[in-house]
């Protein structure tokens, strides 16, 4: 009899497991509420006093909203719930309440049995198909799986439907890898109201009522407000005045809803996030607010960005997982932290303006710099090929132009120090620094000035790395947080500048003191700064500067290149990278790209290496075909060949001396920097361009000295 009872209880228990999809749902003592206010801007907060009232006890910042290639649409929503940037479109984010035809369609398309989930993505198969060619190889539904594996449930309420089109992208944030969500309502949640865009508005009272029914059952609740999205899609039918009238009405509704939600969850162990996965203004970064049990007044930051006031959309899922104490496996982002600060809203507005101002000028100025470098280098190359003798005044003019080109990186690194939060301020500060520098170039125009520029660039960039980007953070030669490829450390543009400045400085010091140990100390210190995960954090840059250092050391010690030296050099490079990786994984609480890549290699196998190699090759090949920097690199090579083969005595003397060792070491580093970096063409072109300018200046200024 007892055996029969045990057998009966076992059958019941196993049946429950099967019917609940294999999960034992946990009692949750914490909830995360994510309110989606898509296309929200910082200026909108001026019309939301309730939300502004959260700032003193919450955290405010900016979020990078980029998916694989776009800032709008479903990609950012899908990326939030994935291990990496993810492709998505309206056809792959078709969410419906799972009942009737929708349930049948989900079963038919996915092949997954229905086990009591409320909402499903009938386009989940298309989402996976889209990402088969995704070079980032994302794990889709990472957050949803993490919660389900821990026994927690998810819920989604609301939509941004327009009547003609369905828009349920917010559900991408909560679904698991099968496209399923446990609770919620995204079909029947709107009210007809002709005062609102498309004649609909979100029924916030119904959302609050339905949320009450699952208050203790869902650990993650996503609420799509929807009305602001509908306004932007309807904007072409409205006058500017009427657009803002309706916008104020919508913002007031959202503000009142968030205030009501706040009152409901104030006594809970709850975390509230207000997100805008797509930007709503010319800024391509959107505001994010975090309020709840673990937050206090200040700005947000994460180890992904290591930059106050800025996070990535990949940081949302780890923040939720950490708060609910679930697994962060398959999540490449890092939890959001708070930095205490007063005047938070003004500070975030300021950095938003600075980021956008720099980003808007970045491409234009770099393009002009590249074209000017190409033009002047070509003219001087033709002069060399035709063996034209320049008059003194013309020679001085070319030397001044070369000095100005050589000093452009220094000008725009120093310009980053000024609070350029508007177009006027950026132009004013850039003009003042450029005029002052041009006066110096016209007055001195000799080798001592170019030596001072080289040493200054080396020291300033090094100091910038040691001070977490406090100098060059907003420079056009630094990384752009809107693009989101890198947020801290040293990017390829500044790495190209640093490589040239370091190797030329090493040559100048060797030429000045005749002691190889002094430049070697400079170079070794540079390698350490670029390699360190909390400073430069640039693996490709490390290989480039390390190759330059090894070559410089070999030349200084008059060692010939042979099999033994080549093997030794490779061994040294591998050892440095291994040490860097060990520090990154074992001693760094939040690993950088290198550490994360190695941990993914351990988790997913050799396919990750193939993916990284493919991504780097693909990026470099794309840039080789399309980038102006390819032309800069080719012209630099052509110009150096012209200077060599037209018998320039000054160049031969330069290359045979101590300075030549620094120049050749930069060429070696540029080649390896190109091979081992995605976007390596930027690093290689900028460093080779600066070397070419240095060589041309030396040839035209045959009587000067560097000391």
Identify low-pLDDT runs: 1-27
The share of residues in helices is: 55-70%
Question: Helix/strand/pairing class, anyone?
Answer: alpha/beta
Amount of beta strand: 5-15%
- Rounded radius of gyration (Å): 29 Å
Task: Compute the average pLDDT.
Answer: 86
Helix count from the secondary structure assignment: 24
Inertia-based shape: elongated
What is the distance, rounded to the nearest whole angstrom, between the alpha carbons of the first and last residues? 101 Å
Q: How many extended strands?
A: 15
Task: Sketch the major β-sheet.
Answer: 10 strands, mixed
Structure in a nutshell:
The chain is an alpha/beta fold and 707 residues long.
Describe this structure as you would to a colleague.
This protein is of the alpha/beta class and 707 residues long. It is 55% helix and 9% strand. The protein is built from 24 helices and 15 strands. The protein has helices spanning 2-19, 49-52, 74-80, 101-110, 124-130, 142-149, 204-213, 227-234, 240-265, 316-324, 344-385, 392-415, 423-444, 447-466, 492-513, 517-531, 539-556, 563-587, 593-604, 607-626, 628-645, 649-656, 658-675, 680-700; strands at 31-36, 58-64, 95-97, 119-121, 154-157, 180-181, 183-185, 190-192, 200-202, 220-224, 270-275, 285-292, 298-301, 310-312, 337-340. Strands 1, 2, 5, 7, 10, 11, 12, 13, 14 and 15 form a 10-stranded mixed beta sheet that branches. Strands 3-4-6 form a 3-stranded antiparallel beta sheet, covered by helices on one side. α11 runs parallel beside α21 (628-645) and α14 packs across α15 (492-513). The longest helix has 42 residues, at 344-385. The model is unreliable at 1-27 (pLDDT under 50).
């Amino acid at each position: 009899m007892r055996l029969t009872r045990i057998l009966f209880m076992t059958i019941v228990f196993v049946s429950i497991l099967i019917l609940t999809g294999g999960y034992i749902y946990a009692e949750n003592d914490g909830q995360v509420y994510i309110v989606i206010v898509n296309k929200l801007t910082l200026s909108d907060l001026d019309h939301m006093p309730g939300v502004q009232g959260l700032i003193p006890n919450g955290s405010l910042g900016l979020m990078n909203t980029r998916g694989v290639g776009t800032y709008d649409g479903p990609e950012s929503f899908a990326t939030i719930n994935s291990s990496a940037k993810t492709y998505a479109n309206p056809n792959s984010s078709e969410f419906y309440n799972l009942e009737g035809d929708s349930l049948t369609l989900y079963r038919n398309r996915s092949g997954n049995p229905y086990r009591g989930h409320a909402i499903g993505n009938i386009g989940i198969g298309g989402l996976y198909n889209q990402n088969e060619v995704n070079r980032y190889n994302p794990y889709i539904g990472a957050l949803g799986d993490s919660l389900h594996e821990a026994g927690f449930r998810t819920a989604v309420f609301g939509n941004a439907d327009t009547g003609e089109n369905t828009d349920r992208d917010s559900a991408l944030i909560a679904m698991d890898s099968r496209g399923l969500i446990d609770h919620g309502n995204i079909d029947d949640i709107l009210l007809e109201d002709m005062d609102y865009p498309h004649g609909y508005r979100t029924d916030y009272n119904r959302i609050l009522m339905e949320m009450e029914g699952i208050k203790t059952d869902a650990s993650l609740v996503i609420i799509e407000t929807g009305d602001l999205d509908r306004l932007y899609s309807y904007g072409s039918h409205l006058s500017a005045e009427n657009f803002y009238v309706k916008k104020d009405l919508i913002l007031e509704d959202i503000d009142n809803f968030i205030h009501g939600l706040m009152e409901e969850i104030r006594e809970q162990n709850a975390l509230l996030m207000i997100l805008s996965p797509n930007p709503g203004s010319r800024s391509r970064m959107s505001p994010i607010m975090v309020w709840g049990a673990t937050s206090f007044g200040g700005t947000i930051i994460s180890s992904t960005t290591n930059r106050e006031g800025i996070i990535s959309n990949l940081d949302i899922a780890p923040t939720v997982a950490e708060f609910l104490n679930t697994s962060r496996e398959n999540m490449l982002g890092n939890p959001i932290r708070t930095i205490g600060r007063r005047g938070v809203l003004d500070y975030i507005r300021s950095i938003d303006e600075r980021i956008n101002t720099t980003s808007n000028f970045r491409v234009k100025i770099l393009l002009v710099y590249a074209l000017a470098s190409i033009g002047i280098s070509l003219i001087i190359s033709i002069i060399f090929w035709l063996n034209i003798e320049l008059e003194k005044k013309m020679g001085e003019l070319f030397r001044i132009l070369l000095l100005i080109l050589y000093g452009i990186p220094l000008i725009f690194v120093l310009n980053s120090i000024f609070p350029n939060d508007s177009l006027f301020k950026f132009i004013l500060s850039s003009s003042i620094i450029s005029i002052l520098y041009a006066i110096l170039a016209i007055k001195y125009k000799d080798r001592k000035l170019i030596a001072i520029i080289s040493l200054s660039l080396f020291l300033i960039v090094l100091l910038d790395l040691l001070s977490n980007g406090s100098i060059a953070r907003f420079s056009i030669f630094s990384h752009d947080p809107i693009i989101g490829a890198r947020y801290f450390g040293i990017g390829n543009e500044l790495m190209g500048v640093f490589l040239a400045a370091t190797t030329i400085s090493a040559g100048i010091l060797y030429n000045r003191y005749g002691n190889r140990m002094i430049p070697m100390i400079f170079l070794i210190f540079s390698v350490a700064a670029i390699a360190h995960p909390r400073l430069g954090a640039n693996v490709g840059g490390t290989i480039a500067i390390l190759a330059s250092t090894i070559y410089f050391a070999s030349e200084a010690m008059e060692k010939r290149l042979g099999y033994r030296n080549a093997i030794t050099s490779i061994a040294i490079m591998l050892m440095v990278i291994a040490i860097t990786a060990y520090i990154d994984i074992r001693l760094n609480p939040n690993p950088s790209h290198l550490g994360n890549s190695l941990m993914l290699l351990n988790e997913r196998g050799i396919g990750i290496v193939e993916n990284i190699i493919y991504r780097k090759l693909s990026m470099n090949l794309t840039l080789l075909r399309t980038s102006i920097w390819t032309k800069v690199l080719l012209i630099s090579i052509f110009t150096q060949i012209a200077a060599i083969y037209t018998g320039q005595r000054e160049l031969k003397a330069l290359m045979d001396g101590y300075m030549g060792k620094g120049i050749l070491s930069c060429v070696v580093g540029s080649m390896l920097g190109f091979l081992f970096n995605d976007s390596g063409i930027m690093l290689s072109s900028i460093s080779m361009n600066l070397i070419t300018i240095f060589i041309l200046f030396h040839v035209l200024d045959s009587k000067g000295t560097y000391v």
